[in-house]
């Protein structure tokens, strides 16, 4: 417990400090977390970090950050081919490698690396994009608080009133009562936040809270599913007492991706 608290203090201080700072430092921080998260999943799959496809798809995880920077700074970084075109080239090289390796590196491995690079890269880049908006600090803090309150509500309500298992095959400790409690607490937090710091309007904040609470819990279940599939307790060990980067950002990756995909803040 002591290790967990110490880690939480220093890691939280770094994260919140860079979140407050914003700009290129936060964009770079998200890019670093992307690479770390990517390596955590590659390790679960037991692929070699030094193989050409793993390195190329690792670079591919950063392509969404180029697009975020171009959109928020109105500057062109990549001339000629777009980030999407570069991504397609990486996919093709991965497919060609199945031939060069005589199928030691398989089509399934290509699919895994593609999904991993999109899941991690787009997730963290979406977070960076929202933070770089004009009111990005307030929006980011609101979303993070909604995720945290959802998790806390689900835990405490589930522990006190939980009887009906939510998805025992994936996460045996989660309950429907806890999930509902997390959603209600998130909505309450959103309304209070809007009353103290008017941001997007009451109707909008309730809708946002519902989306974040539901999607955030699904994001947590997604990570539970793939960790169970690969037979690991934690995604990594970078944060003593907390696991890896993906263990701390599982809900955020899905939530920020969904918010950008739905165009909530466009």
From TrEMBL:
GO terms for biological process: CDP-diacylglycerol biosynthetic process. GO terms for cellular component: plasma membrane. Its main location: membrane. The chain crosses the membrane at residues 12-35, 47-69, 81-100, 112-133, 139-157, 178-196, 202-224, 245-265. The keyword Transmembrane applies. It is found in: Cell membrane. This is Phosphatidate cytidylyltransferase. It catalyses: a 1,2-diacyl-sn-glycero-3-phosphate + CTP + H(+) = a CDP-1,2-diacyl-sn-glycerol + diphosphate. Belongs to the CDS family. It comes from the Bacteria. It is a multi-pass membrane protein. The keyword Methyltransferase does not apply. Keywords: Cell membrane, Lipid biosynthesis, Lipid metabolism, Membrane, Nucleotidyltransferase, Phospholipid biosynthesis, Phospholipid metabolism, Transferase, Transmembrane, Transmembrane helix. GO terms for molecular function: phosphatidate cytidylyltransferase activity. Pathway: Lipid metabolism; Phospholipid metabolism; CDP-diacylglycerol biosynthesis; CDP-diacylglycerol from sn-glycerol 3-phosphate: step 3/3. Its EC number is 2.7.7.41.
């Amino acid at each position: 417990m002591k290790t967990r608290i110490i880690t939480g203090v220093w890691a939280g201080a770094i994260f919140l400090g860079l979140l407050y700072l914003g700009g290129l430092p936060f964009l770079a921080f998200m890019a670093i977390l992307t690479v770390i998260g990517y390596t955590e999943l590659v390790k679960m799959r037991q692929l070699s970090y030094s193989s050409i496809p793993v390195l190329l798809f690792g670079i591919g995880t950063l392509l969404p950050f180029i697009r975020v920077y171009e959109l928020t700074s109105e500057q062109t970084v990549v001339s000629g081919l777009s980030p999407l075109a570069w991504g397609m080239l990486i996919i093709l090289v991965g497919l060609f490698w199945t031939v060069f390796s005589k199928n030691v590196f398989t089509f399934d491995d290509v699919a895994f690396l593609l999904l991993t690079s999109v899941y991690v890269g787009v997730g963290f880049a979406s977070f960076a994009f929202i933070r770089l908006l004009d009111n990005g600090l307030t929006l980011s803090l609101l979303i993070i608080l909604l995720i945290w309150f959802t998790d806390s509500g689900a835990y405490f309500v589930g522990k006190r009133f939980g009887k009906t298992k939510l998805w025992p095959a994936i996460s045996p400790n989660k309950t429907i009562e806890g999930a509902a409690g997390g959603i209600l607490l998130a909505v309450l937090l959103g309304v209070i936040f809007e009353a103290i710091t008017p941001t997007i309007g009451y109707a909008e904040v309730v809708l946002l809270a519902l989306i974040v609470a539901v999607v955030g819990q699904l994001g947590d279940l997604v990570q539970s599913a793939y960790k169970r599939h690969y037979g690991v307790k934690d995604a990594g060990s970078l944060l003593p007492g907390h696991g890896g980067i993906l263990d701390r950002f599982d809900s955020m990756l899905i939530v920020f991706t969904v918010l950008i995909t739905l165009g909530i803040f466009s």
